[in-house]
From TrEMBL:
<feature type="domain" description="D-isomer specific 2-hydroxyacid dehydrogenase NAD-binding">
    <location>
        <begin position="172"/>
        <end position="247"/>
    </location>
</feature>
<dbReference type="InterPro" id="IPR029752">
    <property type="entry name" value="D-isomer_DH_CS1"/>
</dbReference>
<keyword id="KW-0520">NAD</keyword>
<feature type="domain" description="D-isomer specific 2-hydroxyacid dehydrogenase NAD-binding">
    <location>
        <begin position="280"/>
        <end position="389"/>
    </location>
</feature>
<dbReference type="GO" id="GO:0016491">
    <property type="term" value="F:oxidoreductase activity"/>
</dbReference>
<dbReference type="GO" id="GO:0051287">
    <property type="term" value="F:NAD binding"/>
</dbReference>
<protein>
    <recommendedName>
        <fullName>D-isomer specific 2-hydroxyacid dehydrogenase NAD-binding domain-containing protein</fullName>
    </recommendedName>
</protein>
<dbReference type="InterPro" id="IPR036291">
    <property type="entry name" value="NAD(P)-bd_dom_sf"/>
</dbReference>
<dbReference type="Pfam" id="PF02826">
    <property type="entry name" value="2-Hacid_dh_C"/>
</dbReference>
<dbReference type="InterPro" id="IPR006140">
    <property type="entry name" value="D-isomer_DH_NAD-bd"/>
</dbReference>
<keyword id="KW-0560">Oxidoreductase</keyword>
Length: 426
């Protein structure tokens, strides 16, 4: 566990403690920052103050226009899904990505990036650390890159910075569904006080107190959603890839914003684990009212949930599903079928729910961007947003906070946080 205050409250004397007395001055470092954002000069000033030995070079990676494909872009950088070129063409989409020249990496010792990587190990002979500005890898080219597959350069991610804003999205969309916000909004737009016949929607409304949240992937995001859910009176159960049988194993050992998450893993009333379908099915059968999908996309979790899993969730509780992970975690067509089964047997109209899911909120889809004619847009009781749940004004600063923690720890010869396990893929 590594609790970090907001950077404005970071120790002002940290730099002097690392450079004055007790040993030689630290070696010169070159931090290369390649991001699709404006240059964060105030953050760079902060880094220089605490680490005067670090030279910083900033290059802006441009994502402009409306998704225009450029033929000279390496194919990996366009892998939003396996057939991105065809999809983007079908959407009349336009994307323009600028890629830094290979020689820009040759003097860098540290790289901070969203997706740009050196083309080969030879292009970055001095590179000692790569920090990613995402919790998971945003494109397939990263895990297929020779930097990932053929070097041992430490990789760190920004896991831990997304919890507050994504948890708010999860709860917001779940409440928008359960409180029939679309109906309420239509009444307001039409200047109506609501028809009495429609108010039965609200007479049968269930609040969250006493309901059960199942968190499939109890990482930093899942822990913050659990924290908020518990504050609403929900019971929380957690699912992880490996067993967490001791108090220590349940601790969050990554980056944690103060006052957020579940640092000691004390919120869940029960823990489950596994990567096989029987283990997953056992978890899903625990009378879950709301399932949060927050596992990373790996070979094991691709299409982890389909018709069989939705049937388990729909059998007793007609659960609500939230996906903030990756679209390929679920079989999308089978999710749509489950939602349609519920609509055809709506309990408000005398049905039994049809064994389907009563609703879903998806911030990720398969593919992305979602084509205009995709049936998911019209799936019943389904909220779709364009992969924006993790965005917010604090994103960049918090991602740099993770890097700064590791710069401090490297300078002291300590173990870094948020280190990526190449074998696991996260």
């Amino acid at each position: 566990m590594w609790l970090v205050t907001e950077t404005s409250r970071r120790p002002a004397l940290l730099a002097s403690s690392l450079t004055m007395g007790g040993g030689p001055d630290p070696k010169p470092e070159h931090l290369l920052v390649i991001l699709p954002f404006g240059e964060p000069t105030n953050i760079f000033d902060r880094i220089r103050k605490n680490h005067p030995n670090i030279k910083i070079t900033y290059k802006k990676q441009l994502y402009e226009g409306t998704w225009e494909m450029k033929p000279d872009i390496p194919i990996g950088l366009n892998e939003f899904h396996p057939s991105s070129s065809q999809l983007l063409a079908s959407c009349n989409a336009r994307l323009l990505i600028t890629i830094p020249a290979a020689d820009i990496y040759k003097d860098a010792t540290i790289l901070a990036t969203l997706s740009a990587l050196p083309p080969s190990p030879e292009a970055c002979p001095n590179l000692k650390l790569i920090h990613f500005f995402s919790a998971g890898f945003v494109t397939n080219h990263i895990v297929e890159s020779p930097i990932y597959t053929s070097t041992s350069i430490p990789l760190t991610n920004s896991s831990g910075i997304h919890g507050p804003q994504i948890a708010e999205w999860v709860i917001m969309t779940a409440l928008a569904h359960s409180h029939h916000y679309s109906l309420l909004h239509s009444w307001q737009q039409n200047h109506e006080w609501g028809k009495s016949i429609d108010r039965k929607e609200f007479q049968t409304l269930r609040d969250k107190a006493g309901q059960r949240l199942g968190v499939l992937g109890y990482g930093s995001i899942g822990r913050q959603v659990a924290r908020v859910a518990r504050g609403m009176g929900m019971d929380v159960i957690a699912y992880t890839a490996s067993p967490r049988t001791t108090p220590e194993s349940k601790h969050d050992k990554g980056f944690i914003l103060p006052g957020t998450g579940d640092p000691d893993g004390s919120i869940p009333s029960a823990w489950f684990h596994g990567l096989d379908k029987p283990s997953l099915h056992h978890f899903l059968a625990q009378d879950i009212d709301h399932l949060l999908i927050s596992v990373p996309l790996t070979k094991q979790t691709k299409h982890f949930l389909g018709a069989a899993e939705f049937a388990i969730l729909g059998r007793k509780k007609n659960a609500f599903l939230s996906n903030i992970s990756r679209g390929q975690i679920i079989v999308q067509a089978e999710l749509i079928a489950s939602l349609e089964a519920y609509r055809a047997n709506d309990p408000l109209r005398g049905g039994d729910g049809g064994g389907g899911l009563r609703g879903a909120a998806l911030d990720v889809t398969d593919p992305e961007p979602l084509p205009p004619d995709d049936p998911l847009w019209d799936a019943p009781n389904c909220i779709v947003t364009p992969h924006i749940s993790g965005q917010g004004e604090a994103y960049v600063d918090r991602a740099f906070q993770v890097l700064e923690v590791n710069l401090d720890r490297r300078a002291r010869g300590e173990k870094m946080i948020n280190v990526v396990d190449r074998k696991k893929g996260y």
